[in-house]
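Supplementary Text 2. Reproducibility record for the structural model of the 481-residue chain.

All settings were left at their defaults, and a single model was retained for analysis rather than an ensemble. We include the record here because the model underlies the residue-level annotations in Supplementary Table 4.
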Amino acid sequence: MAVTHAFWLAGRQATGEDTFDVTSPWDGRLVGKVSVPTDAQVEEAVAAAYAVQDEFAAPPAHVRAAALDHVSRRLVERTEEIAQLISAENGKPIKWARGEVGRAVSVFRFAAEEARRFNGGEAQRLDTDAGGQGRLALTRRFPKGAVLGIAPFNFPLNLCAHKIAPAIAAGVPIILKPAPATPLSGLIIGDLLAGSELPAGSWSILPVANDHMPALVQDERLPVISFTGSEKVGYAIMDSVPRKHCTLELGGNGAAVVLGDYASDADLDWAATRIATFSNYQGGQSCISVQRVIADAAVYDRLLPRIVAAVEAQVTGDPSDAKTDVGPLVSEAAAQRVESWVQEAVEAGATLLTGGKRDGASYAPTVLTDVPADTTISCEEVFGPVLTVTKVDGEAAAFAAANDSKYGLQAGVFTHDVQVAFRAHRALEVGGVVIGDVPSYRADQMPYGGAKQSGVGREGVKFAMDDYTYERVLVLTGLAL
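Retained model, structure tokens:
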């Protein structure tokens, strides 16, 4: 019989009246049952978060840092167990699941470090004008209020960590809603936090159904919303609460630009390998996976067959096998959507070079060329193991092609020219430019977010802490400076 997993209400385990099943997208097996909080329990969690705000902001930094260090250490100790859980509920190949646990370890460690140095205060002398003589301004940051964190399925542990760790570090109460498809990885953070000494009410982890979210989103006691997910849902949330502070990490259709100076056999082999790996890792279910390859005409004919060969070398299959590179998508419906987009592109004139086949929730790694600009796969985020390859003539055309998108999350530029690197940084309308690699690189301490329809605000522990707080100035008068 499958285990029924409790949720975390104001720091303690609780169960509701109903449960739902979590199944593996690979083989359909039951991974676990999850208890669903009742409306009364959700209200209790919100009330507790609201009530504990002053208490949680007051303790010294070392108390919150110790809790975060504790979680980081326990994640290390339970790495294999948690990685197996991620792989089971998400379908993520075990090697990528292990990497995700490693990243979450770092997120909580970074948060512990930031908790120790955050909000030390910045002093500014005011006697630069005669009216400010004897005055000093001290600026510190204080919580905007309790946070509603909404996490997606594709990184079910690490993106929950990116919501909850910065909140704890900044002394901000948080209610975390994990994705319905992958709640178990988020709930396990509660197992670890329960061993800390954080005050009751400072955190809750509630697997609330999506159709019950509007009431939580609208609740005035949760003035900050941090959402990672689709463009459609993210902007619907923002539009529904125009006076709340919203951080939205939304979609992308990441471009990897390969320029003409990146021309040796070793260069092209590296680019092709990285493109193939990161168009297909997580089954392509990453906002910064490679979806578009934009290659200079000088290297296109030599690069394209290398990309196809590298994509075909990706090992697909059972996500529990350490040799597997590409597992299933999160559901059969997701794979069917990808299949329909590829079919639409081919019917419109695109050339299918490899892949294009679906088996249940799995979709074969796919490469397309000659894709018409008005097809769905050109305009939207595919969130699947599919990439398109386009030939352009020169740097300016390559950057224009990369910018020809409503999204602007990250871009990768393969070049050896440092001047080109700085021009790319200026020209590309994205939140991050990665030189010499794919757009899929993310360090969890750096600012991460997008331009255009890819969202607003930034994640990355310190930057999320800034987002959860606001500046308050203290002016001291009568000082002998």
